[in-house]
């Protein structure tokens, strides 16, 4: 058995923060230690430092939560709250025009991370919340982001395992490559019944000042109500508005 090298101080500190996720937003000290795979004494010391700084908060029952200081730091991320603030007026316009589920997302490695979500009137099964992650190939925003990523990123992703969530989820690499090419050609991504059997997502890429795709915006509508000829230009218009607000200007002929 190969002995593992000792964990560095930054690694131990980050493992404490990583113990918190959407399924575990509140943890006791012993739960943090277990999820971080750290001794209780080490966890106590690190949690104390993080609490003093404001990264964690302790309630009256002795349970720890993520602190507001992390929220303040996260607000500085250009692909997080800063992007959300620029995009929100256009997302709200998109919602008012459709009253359907509106989403804004960015790519993080092989996953899409949702940074904003406006809930629509429909009861369509949307397994999304702010901060949620899903594989790129199974969502409209993910397809839009992956299609405009570097070719090396696309090839690496297509070569990896492609998880299936419904019988309709694309798990064949060749088929996924064809879909990505179609997204680039059409300027919009359509993801039908890829995560749930009752929903269709229509997404368009958002570009930054340098023209590179930095985010994607989408509508998620019930399968029975989908009308792509009407939805596609609406989503494109929202994405274009956000792109312009971020400083992007289309190339002049």
How many beta strands in the DSSP annotation? Answer: 9
Kindly identify the CATH topology of the largest domain.
Beta-Lactamase
Secondary-structure-derived class: alpha+beta
- Measured as a percent range, the helix fraction is 40-55%
Number of helices: 9
N→C terminal distance: 64 Å
Strand order of the largest sheet: 6-5-4-9-8-7
Largest sheet properties: 6 strands, antiparallel
> Average pLDDT value?
88
Entry summary:
With 253 residues, this protein is α+β, with helices and mostly antiparallel strands. It has helices at residues 9-18, 29-36, 40-53, 68-74, 81-98, 140-147, 151-159, 173-186, 228-245, and strands spanning 26-27, 56-58, 64-66, 101-108, 111-118, 133-135, 189-192, 199-207, 213-222.
Describe this structure in words.
- The structure is a single chain.
- By secondary structure, the chain is α+β, with helices and mostly antiparallel strands.
- The chain has two domains: about 10-75, Arc Repressor Mutant, subunit A (Orthogonal Bundle), CATH 1.10.10.10; about 80-245, 2-Layer Sandwich (Beta-Lactamase).
- Helices cover about 40% and strands about 20% of the residues.
- It contains nine helices and nine strands.
- The strands form two sheets. It has a six-stranded antiparallel sheet with strand order 6-5-4-9-8-7, sandwiched between helices.
- β4 (about 100-110) and β5 form a beta hairpin.
- α2 packs across α3 (about 40-55) and α6 (about 140-145) packs across α8.
- The chain is globular, with a radius of gyration of 21 Å.
């Amino acid at each position: 058995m190969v002995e593992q090298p000792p964990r560095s101080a930054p690694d131990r500190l980050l493992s404490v923060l990583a113990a918190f996720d959407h399924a575990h937003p509140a943890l006791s000290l012993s739960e943090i230690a277990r999820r971080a795979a750290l001794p209780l004494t080490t966890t106590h010391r690190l949690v104390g430092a993080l609490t003093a700084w404001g990264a964690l908060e302790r309630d009256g029952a002795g349970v720890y939560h993520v602190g507001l200081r992390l929220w303040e730091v996260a607000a500085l991320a250009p692909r997080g709250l800063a992007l959300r603030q620029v995009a929100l007026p256009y997302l709200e316009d998109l919602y008012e025009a459709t009253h359907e589920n509106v989403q804004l997302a960015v790519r993080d490695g092989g996953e899409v991370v949702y940074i904003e979500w406006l809930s629509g009137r429909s009861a369509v099964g949307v397994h999304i919340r702010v901060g949620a992650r899903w594989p790129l190939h199974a969502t409209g925003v993910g397809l839009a982001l992956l299609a405009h990523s570097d070719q090396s990123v696309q090839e690496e992703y297509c070569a990896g395992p492609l998880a299936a969530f419904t019988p309709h989820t694309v798990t064949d690499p060749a088929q996924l490559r064809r879909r990505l090419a179609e997204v680039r050609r059409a300027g919009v991504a359509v993801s039908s019944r890829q995560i749930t059997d009752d929903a269709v997502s229509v997404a368009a890429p958002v570009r930054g000042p340098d023209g590179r795709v930095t985010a994607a915006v989408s509508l998620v509508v019930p399968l029975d109500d989908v009308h792509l000829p009407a939805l596609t230009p609406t989503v494109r218009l929202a994405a274009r508005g956000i792109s312009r607000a971020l400083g992007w200007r289309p190339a002049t002929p």
